[in-house]
Amino acid sequence: MRKAEVSRKTKETDIRLVLNLDGKGESDISTGIGFFDHMLEGFSRHGFFDLKCHVQGDLHVDGHHTVEDTGIVLGKAIAEAAGGKKGIRRYGFFILPMDDALAMCAVDLCGRPFLNFDCRFPAAQAGGLDTELVREFFYAVSYSAGMNLHIKMLDGQNTHHMIEASFKAFAKALDQAVGMEPRVEDVLSTKGCL
Question: Which of 40, 63, 90, 186 has the most CB atoms within 10 Å of its CB?
Fold first, then answer.
């Protein structure tokens, strides 16, 4: 099994996360932000990743540190669980509809971090989560995982649906990228490493 356990403790957050890339989509999530829990549960379920994530953050300040630091830890776990990336597809992409929302996500597990996040949400909050933190989360994931990540909202009116579609599209694209390809004997790169 490709599994990673990552902990991170600062003055702002205390995070324990376990990720299994070869899971069944089971999750145990507690971040203190209900809507964020819901998004991570969707990521787990639709990517078929088993995810345990327990966060104690300084929510008396706001949700920023909790969301960003969770992204950092999840990114590290993805990188650790993927290991040397031998035999994986490397690339993944998905276009996901959710009612009025249509989200596109493309992933390259190339080792070079980059985020292109083209999503504008109509509301400033969704279920207690500041919507500007969605970009911060994906930025943190992409940089700590060393992945090239593009997320684009193609359509949408409802902020909840748009954010949820982006998390689920990311899950499906990542599941594809970490999937094993029997034709790849080492890594999918002309350089010989990722």
Answer: 40
Placement of tokens 């599941």 in the chain: 175
Contact of 94 with 172, CB cutoff 8 Å: yes
56, 60, 54, 61: which is closest to 18 by C-alpha? Answer: 54
pTM of structure: 0.96
Polymer length of the chain: 194
pLDDT digits (tens, 9 = 90+) for 125-140: 999 999 999 999 999 9
DSSP 81-138: HHTT-TTB--EEEEEEEETTEEEEEEEE-SS--EEEEE---SSSEETTEETHHHHHHH
If DSSP codes are grouped into helix, strand and coil, which group holds residue 11?
A: coil
